[in-house]
């Protein structure tokens, strides 16, 4: 892949992680006039050791895990202290534990939008399973990114800091939205919710989904997920290989790792966004 803004952004969701209060808008700005490569909308995880097309088993991890926050820095490998896939929670427990947050997510966003009803919550659950089965992206990783991007509110505002990011996963210029141009759709239709999750996971015609980001990482171990989180958020990896470094949200990959091991309500101890020096953040 050639080294240019276009290739740097090839995997870019340039997605904004909530809460927005911890992110400075200058750090999130995408370069203007960037021409983003066109890509397939049906990306799947190509590494057989990483791909998981059977997400039918929802009791597939360490139950509830532990609701605590541990700050992870460095390259995303278990050697650098990041959690192994064996230490991840079960999807069933993870969804159950986030359900209350998902239920109240919309009113807790900046714009106090109408909350989810039961059908919308069910559509999120089914949408994750459908996208996971179709792309080989582990369902727990998709849920972690949804919680990171929108807290599970399908009416989350479409953001635009150079790239339009709509929907539950604030994906790369996707079609599905229930809050575009200040037009709110309540309830958000099941098909729209499913499409939002598919666009975030399998990609859109103008940008990568989680599957592409995992492929791009290409390390064949659990660090592919944490590296993919970094790529989804900022469009590329830091030259240092440290996942707290680069643009966008420095806590993003660490947050995702914590969500995958049971973090729900515990106070975050990540200082990488409030005090980048404390995490040895490099902008390159
Ligand atoms: C995997 O991701 C890479 C990097 O974005 C992409 O070029 C490739 O098309 C993807 N493969 C599939 C099958 O999705
Ligand atoms: C993954 O994508 C490739 C390329 O598009 C395709 O050949 C393959 O059948 C897909 N695998 C699955 C399991 O869908
Ligand atoms: C996902 O695939 C598994 C088997 O591979 C199947 O049991 C399950 O019903 C599928 N789920 C959805 C939502 O398609
Ligand atoms: C997970 O937490 C729920 C609610 O606290 C509890 O009922 C359940 O037994 C726990 N499951 C495991 C596997 O620890
Ligand atoms: C990742 O970081 C750990 C700890 O700093 C180091 O031991 C390991 O060699 C690094 N792995 C890669 C692939 O860079
Ligand atoms: C967010 O969405 C609401 C509802 O559509 C709208 O009133 C508000 O202006 C939006 N905020 C921004 C920053 O676009
Ligand atoms: C900080 O990161 C740089 C790479 O950007 C590395 O060379 C250096 O060892 C790190 N320092 C500490 C204290 O981790």
Automatic annotation (TrEMBL):
Annotated keywords: Signal
Signal peptide extent: 1-17
UniProt name for this protein: Glycoside hydrolase family 23 protein
Originating organism: Hypocrea atroviridis (strain ATCC 20476 / IMI 206040)
